[in-house]
Amino acid sequence: MLLKSDIKRIWELQKEIVAKAETGVPREILNDFTVPAKHTIILTGIRRCGKSTLLFQLIGKKYPEAFYLNFDDNRLYGFDNSDLLRLDEIISESGARILFFDEIQEVDGWERYVRQKLDENFKVVITGSNASLLSRELGTKLTGRHLNIELFPFSYSEFLTATKLKSGEASVIRYINNGGFPEFLKSRKEEILSELFEDILIRDIVIRYGIRDIKGLQRLALWLISNIGNRVTGSKLKQTIGISATSTIMEYFSHLESSYLFNLVPCFSYSVRSQMISPRKVYSADNGLITVNSASFSDDQGRKLENTIYTSLRSKHNSIFYFSGKNECDFVVTQKGKKPLVYQVCYKLDRDNLDRELGGLYEALAYFKLKDGIIITLNQTDTFKQNGLTANVVPVWEFLKSKTEDRRRKVQGVSSE
After folding, report:
1. 103-137: per-residue pLDDT in tens?
2. Domain 4-151 class?
3. Is 135 exposed, middle or buried (0-12, 13-18, 19+ CB in 10 A)?
4. Which of 42, 55, 230, 247 is the most buried (most CB within 10 A)?
5. R_g of the chain, CA atoms, integer Å
6. Do 211 and 205 touch, CB atoms closer than 8 A?
7. DSSP letter assigned to residue 403
8. Which of the 8 DSSP states describes residue 297?
9. H-helix or E-strand containing 333?
10. What is the model's pLDDT at position 139?
């Protein structure tokens, strides 16, 4: 419990910080970001991807009258449910009708409070770094009254703006290796990404879920970040990691995904059960995390390129799979009411891998009854045709900068009750 005067003073100090903050590169989502009247915007994403900075940009460019409070502030330690009444008084005195709450999930009962503010015709935006926690509480208290927007580290276009580089092979190699965390790109201090990796494990998983086997979780996370693009199963990993139960591995998988640190991509099948039992392919939230934290002694640019394409696809699409038949195709994107999109990723096509890479793409195209697909490489351009199927080979920077795909961040809405 805190004094009203203390809460108000902290809010005023945060307000000064926001006014002086360097907001950096305008995010691509900024122009399309609108706060609706009857729905809470839930802005989620991995820690340090720029959620708070996006709020600062919104305050500076679109909503200068918004009331901003960051609950992940040491000075607010001890803020509890009873303090929401005192916060209400401060908001009323400010005259604000738009509320920006950063990391509000730190407060017990926050979801009821947000629902109350919606009922009072406030516009509300909240941020959070844990998908499972937010979705569980939103599902019970804010069903039908929220819109989810996931923010990611910098896209390639945002990376170019931040680094003042030109689109092309040299800049995309830097992007593939450094990723898109804004603070790291600015300082180039590797400890930022090593500390972030550990911070997510401890704060977002160990403390939040009461994990006792901290070393086991750390070994699992290290193995995953060192094996990007590989297939994984809980039953095989438990021996490698030294965790006795497959159920524990699966639980850790869930926590790692909820914290946005990793994604586990299923094999495509029309059978849900088949999807569940098939091995999944592991991808990281950002390539910089791979470069800094991987225990692998080989600098596998091919895996990093594959991870780059995955993060780009995930920023625009909800349903991503890999395809496995006689050959493998890296990514199949399914879309409601539209034909699937099929992508193969290969750092460099040559005589040794051409038949394999084309075979995987052609097999996926035939399976989905499609006529053409894309092979994404570092710097090659080509076209291959076989039995009425076409494989278009494109350089990665052209794919990432493509105007034919929707570049806005995906927004998943739920209609009001």
Report:
1. 888 788 888 899 899 999 999 999 987 765 555 55
2. alpha beta
3. middle
4. 55
5. 23
6. yes
7. S
8. S
9. strand 328-335
10. 53
pLDDT tier at 143 (50, 70, 90 boundaries)? low
Dist CA 200 CA 266 (whole Å): 24
Residue 402: the pLDDT is 76
Q: What angle do CA 301, 302, 305 make, to 5 degrees?
A: 85
User: What DSSP letter does each residue of 348-380 carry, written as one string?
Assistant: S--TTTHHHHHHHHHHHHHHTT-SEEEEEESS-
The mean per-residue pLDDT over the stretch 77-96 comes to 94
- In the block, tokens 């991509």 appear at 265
Amino acid identity for residue 79 in this structure? F
Q: Which amino acid is at 397?
A: W
Q: In this structure, what is the dihedral angle of CA atoms 336, 338, 339, 342, given to the nearest 10 degrees?
A: -70
Over residues 204-225, the mean pLDDT reads 95
CA distance 113 to 125: 13
- DSSP code per residue over 134-158: HHHHHHHHSTTSEEEEE--SPPHHH
Angstrom distance (rounded) from CA 234 to CA 243: 10
Instruction: Return d(Cα 220, Cα 231) in angstroms, integer.
Output: 14
Which tokens sit at 270?
A: 């029309």
Cα distances (angstroms) measured from residue 255 to each of 129, 132, 407: 12, 8, 28
Look at residue 275 in the predicted model and tell me its pLDDT: 83
Amino acid identity, position 315: S
What's the pLDDT score for residue 111? 85
Where do the structural domains in the chain lie, given as residue ranges?
Answer: 4-151, 156-261+285-297
